[in-house]
Amino acid sequence: MPLLVMKFGGTSVGDLARIRNAALKVQREVERGYDVIVIVSAMSGKTNELVGWVEQTSPLFDAREYDAVVSSGENVTAGLMALTLQELDIPARSWQGWQVPILTTSAHSAARLVDIPREAIDRKFAEGMKVAVVAGFQGVSPEGRITTLGRGGSDTTAVAFAAAFGAERCDIYTDVDGIYTTDPRISSRARKLDRIAFEEMLELASLGAKVLQTRSVELAMRYKVRLRVLSSFEDTDETSGTVVCDEDEIMESKVVSGVAYSRDEAKMTLVTIEDRPGIAAAIFGPLSEAGVNVDMIVQNISERDYDNHPGAVTDMTFSCPVNQVARARAAMEDARAAGIISYDDLAVDTEVAKVSVVGIGMRSHAGVAATMFRALAAENINIKVIATSEIKISVLIDRKYMELAVQALHDAFELEKAA
Amino acid sequence: MPLLVMKFGGTSVGDLARIRNAALKVQREVERGYDVIVIVSAMSGKTNELVGWVEQTSPLFDAREYDAVVSSGENVTAGLMALTLQELDIPARSWQGWQVPILTTSAHSAARLVDIPREAIDRKFAEGMKVAVVAGFQGVSPEGRITTLGRGGSDTTAVAFAAAFGAERCDIYTDVDGIYTTDPRISSRARKLDRIAFEEMLELASLGAKVLQTRSVELAMRYKVRLRVLSSFEDTDETSGTVVCDEDEIMESKVVSGVAYSRDEAKMTLVTIEDRPGIAAAIFGPLSEAGVNVDMIVQNISERDYDNHPGAVTDMTFSCPVNQVARARAAMEDARAAGIISYDDLAVDTEVAKVSVVGIGMRSHAGVAATMFRALAAENINIKVIATSEIKISVLIDRKYMELAVQALHDAFELEKAA
Fold this sequence. Notes:
33% helix
């Protein structure tokens, strides 16, 4: 029997009517001949309520108890979903993490999946069960304690089940109807993509298109699980949504697939640092220890770049989220006071945003950067920092130009047109 | 190390402040040198919310899914209680039913306890844990599904742990400060009892003094667990509340310990039935199948009681809750239509109440019934039905006289005075 994994997020199971709506989508797939594993999140708002109680009770909480409390939200949804399916005459039952069992590491609140034994669920499918409803986001540690996978972990649960059970596809039902070339709130010409490569999705997700959790995309890429993102609030069929798949499956790819942005960035520059081996580690070690998520890093060309001889100086620029600036500044000042680094000044610009173009086609096509920079220049937008990877070019610009830049780049790469 | 079981009901853990208040009571016992097993209910209102969701989803629900959903309330409280204790620097952890494991039958929503293996919890006590917080009301079936013990099941969980771990005492914290000689809302002279025998408590509980679940008292009696009922909202010490214990421990018992009542009773009389062997089974079989909880049964003296010869007739009177009258009437009419029984008339009086006096001293003292009937006669209260057991005398009377009867009996037996 072919098997599908269907995952419903918190808003998709936010109340009993929505759970029923989701169950009808499951029923359709059962009628098409699939066995189905349904992964559910907690009803929207429930996890936040539980987290709030834990944090009020114990600011420095025991993560094992946090997990025991917070995982209960998914258990409730799993039972209600199984009951709803039974009302539709579909043989279904719920599974909590320990019942499968979903085996994880002991890293509570951020556990990693270790194994998902198939025996228990396979036996029930063999006995005639059509749908296994599994509580997402949770598992059980080697010590027999309940673990959680961290925020967005239900996506990861879904992909892992799809891999373990050899599912034909893993459908992620959410409150958007797919992945767009850019944010439709910024560019009215944004177009829904039918397909996108895993690598592109990873770049888009980490850049702010928060539809799929990054870990789940990585896992899907590793195990070649076909992911599909689609809306739980619309009528959907086999062609709905966006398929995230191996790039081999994408025939006629455009050079650029999408334009992503991140609004609340800050640019920090350490002025006049020593230009010597180990200086980067001396800077970014303390930042990492302080929990600063450094994104782009640019080292200016040294004043005398032909030689790293003693006395050479340079500047170092990096970006991080705006709300981490204070922490980053403290880490740098402490490092200077401790004699680990030296600098003349720490220049901070908190009024910047990041705009990126992403596409696997970039690998084989020259001229993407030139097109990007020309489009920004035509709008008189000054580029402050540039960073590139194999399938992405990012720039930091003044925040006030962010929307304009996204629109200009979307137009320049003609993303409103299908490939 | 001596061990205590402490159980906190839903109102005692109704919010974070109340959980903290309960934790302080646990802390006091730990400071006195006890290891403690804490049994918790769901926060008040939570179980009803979950039950409501299940019933709205599926009127004829799968009890296995009901249990999986409804048990989550206790899991949340258990985690929050463990966190609160940790904040008080007490080594504590939570245990869900399957983690202990609390082994039960597969009778979902009304499961019976089978075994509570001590190994896992004992090992943690040996490692220095001072408090095991256990989710009440739940267990796990031989099939590995979550079960619940039915309403009030947390009391039963508490007593079973006290028996399994040889606890010095099982303290049931609730919203009253003990067991009273009668309802203080009805008689201002009601007095809190320091001690009460298991048998008396069973009669009082089933008669409407709904402080302890009947099953938990039965279990405590069988395993000789000393129960104590006390308030979680008052300062309490070792002498607070009411101890429910073996009658051997009660030295100077009064003849009557308490006056109980049940307001919403109905009296039904089948007029002119055959007086033959098997007639009672023919009547009460169909009533039982219809789910009618018959309480008192009185068969009138047969018109010709010297012989059960063919043609002899009699009347049969029984009582049941008012809201089951329609069901009882239908069962009787169906049985008559099917030729199982015959009767001339079914007389129904829905305006009655039951008042009972209870006391283990009755066994060895004559004259209790006479005192009771005289006290009621003095108030001109007519007795409609009388039923007696070894330690209880119950009467049905007009409902409008119920409060008056309770006060008169409380006074007649001088229950306001300590033994």
